[in-house]
Amino acid sequence: MVLRVILQIIPHGDETKTREIGRLDIFNKGKIGLANEYGVIDLSPNQTGLYNHSIAHIRENGAWELVRLVIGGLQIK
């Protein structure tokens, strides 16, 4: 299963002009002790992100905490 975070621009609130400007796919690699281990599959559109380690995350902490941890670990060139 993949958790996908999509960044979109909605010019002047007009949904018909919405365009995607970024995408982050986070996948579950397995378990480490009591936590799940997550990594990044895709950082689009330009693949500028580097993610060189996994994140240990307890599901009960929620999806937004996982996204925060992943984004905090990204190093953008």
Summed up:
This protein has one helix at residues 63-73; strands spanning 2-9, 19-32, 35-44, 49-50, 55-57, 75-76. The protein is elongated. Helix content is 14%, strand content 51%.
Word description of this protein:
- This protein is mainly β and 77 residues long.
- The chain has one domain (2-76).
- The chain has one helix at 63-73, and strands spanning 2-9, 19-32, 35-44, 49-50, 55-57, 75-76.
- A hairpin with a 2-residue loop joins β2 and β3.
- The longest helix has 11 residues, at 63-73.
- The two termini are 28 Å apart.
Largest sheet: 4 strands, antiparallel
- Mean pLDDT, as a whole number? 82
Alpha carbon gap, first and last residue: 28 Å
The Rg value, from CA coordinates, equals 14 Å
Return the string of H and E elements: EEEEEHE
What's the arrangement of secondary structure elements?
Elements: E1 2-9, E2 19-32, E3 35-44, E4 49-50, E5 55-57, H1 63-73, E6 75-76
Antiparallel strand pairs: 1-2, 2-3, 3-5, 4-6
What descriptive keywords fit this protein?
77 residues; four-stranded antiparallel beta sheet; 1 helix; 14% helix
